[in-house]
Amino acid sequence: MTEITAKKLADLIAAGESEKLEFKESFGDEALETIGAFANAHGGTLLVGVKDSGDIYGVQIGKKTLEDIANKIQEATDPRLQPSILAVNFEKELVIVIQISSVMRGPVSVRGRYFRRTGRTNQRMSHEEIMQRMVTSTGISWDAVVEPAAALVDLNSTKIAAFIESIKKKGRLAIPAQVTAQEILRKLELIKNETPTRAALLLFGNNPEAYFSSAFLKIGRFRSPTHIVDDREIHGTLIDQLNGAMSWFRERLETEFIITGKPERDVRWEYPLEAIREAVTNALCHRDYTSLAHTQIRLYDDYLEIRNAGGLPSALTPEALFHEHDSMPRNRKIAESFFYAGLIERWGSGTLRIVEELQSAGFPPPQFISESGHFRLNFYKQVFIDEYLKKLELSERQLKAISYVKEYGKITNTEYQTIANISKRTATRELNELKNKEILISEGSTTGRGTFYRLKKGAIKGP
User: Fold this and answer.
1) What's the distance, Cα to Cα, between the start and end of the chain in Å?
2) Packing angle between helix 396-408 and helix 413-420, nearest 10 degrees?
3) What sign results for the dihedral spanned by CA atoms 242, 247, 249, 250?
4) Which of 156, 190, 327, 365 could crosslink 347 through cysteines, CB 3.0-4.6 Å?
5) Does domain 6-125 have CATH number 3.30.950.30?
6) pLDDT digit string (tens) for 347-372?
7) For 19-76, how does the pLDDT look when each residue is reduced to its tens digit (9 = 90+)?
């Protein structure tokens, strides 16, 4: 745990509430919920005796106050938490500092309820999230479990043969010459005791939806969220769905032929195909197949959205996806099979490849959004150009705020105060100016706390 001095405490309070910091005037049920939410996310620090505004309220501490708080936390949480608790003198008042580590072995309940930290708020975990965390805590991937009602006859031998041929061509797994398809699947732990695993049914099943009703893909072109002009469902195995989606994109995306002086012309697609392929592969590979929601792809006039069930693992954030990060596949056997067949290059690199493909093609960075029960990935067409923004008579601070949103997907009032070194009142006024110019939109709480700002889709079209 980080040592908390008066100076460190001052820095924390000045930074304001965040995904990993919460203020409470007193210790009660809401404080316990925050502790559970921190434990189920990335950990965090709870300051008791501090108002939401950051003003010091202070607490009265007796001989057993800290011990009583520790006992209340242990009694309310399961598995029992033992966070670091100490009192710090600050501005002639006492502030209780409670530091909570992330718990990876399974979800932590608070009096039978499960919470997770999202932004500056605590949210109830869905049943699917709780079950997924419990499965993950056992060390067994959901897709590695056999499906008792299934049999080997439910697997398609032609699809298995094509998969094995892909492995041989890629050369990532040594396959002896005289070995049967079933022996290969046993080696990959895709069948156990002559019974297919869930991964095998999704990869090679004659009818995967007989076991997983939502295991299909809906794809379409949209003018607005309620105006659909083209709609298609793609069924079959995960590889069928990937190939079907890419065929649809090749039919629907606009193209531009570029003359380069070479005998053949270069083709510029409406969105880079390799980035799309990586995104669709990730969605199919990492989605939560216990959810009743199917994978969705929506092509709008000015952006592309790919949505799948299942948020990010608690140890990952959307910001982390722009950098090197550990691989934490929800479905390990599917991810492993995709790797051997050459459908993914290496574990944990998919989002980096998407970022690189978009950047090299001159597109804005993608937007990764992890919300309750699902994950979204957005591609945008517009190239954000500072010269155009300057024509709107924006200040250097506001340009800096827009650059921050372009990189991280959103910005809060507190974050703007920090990067621009300005007061809360000034930050509020300048963010409202960006809203009035229809560059940013606000989302979250209407009371200010929990509010964040995103770029308005299609607001910036270049000069």
Assistant:
1) 50
2) 120
3) positive
4) 327
5) yes
6) 667 889 999 988 888 788 899 988 77
7) 899 999 999 999 999 999 999 888 999 999 999 999 999 999 998 999 999 999 999 9
Name the CATH topology of 217-380: Heat Shock Protein 90 (3.30.565)
- Determine the average pLDDT of the residues in 266-272: 82
Domain with CATH 3.30.565.60 in the chain: 217-380
Whole-number pLDDT of residue 437: 82
In the chain, which residues fall in CATH 1.10.10.10? 386-455
Query: Is 0.70 surpassed by the pTM of this model?
Result: no
136-158 burial, b for 16+ CB within 10 Å, e for fewer? beeeebbbbebbeebeeebbbee
Fold of 386-455: Arc Repressor Mutant, subunit A (1.10.10)
Question: Angle 249-373-226 (CA atoms, 0-180°, nearest 5)?
Answer: 50
Hey, what are 332's tokens?
Answer: 């390990």
Which of 174, 170, 190, 175 lies closest to 238, judged by CA?
Answer: 190
- Calculate helix-pair angle for 424-436, 413-420, nearest 10 degrees: 110
Give yes or no for a contact between 201 and 238, defined as CB atoms under 8 angstroms apart. no
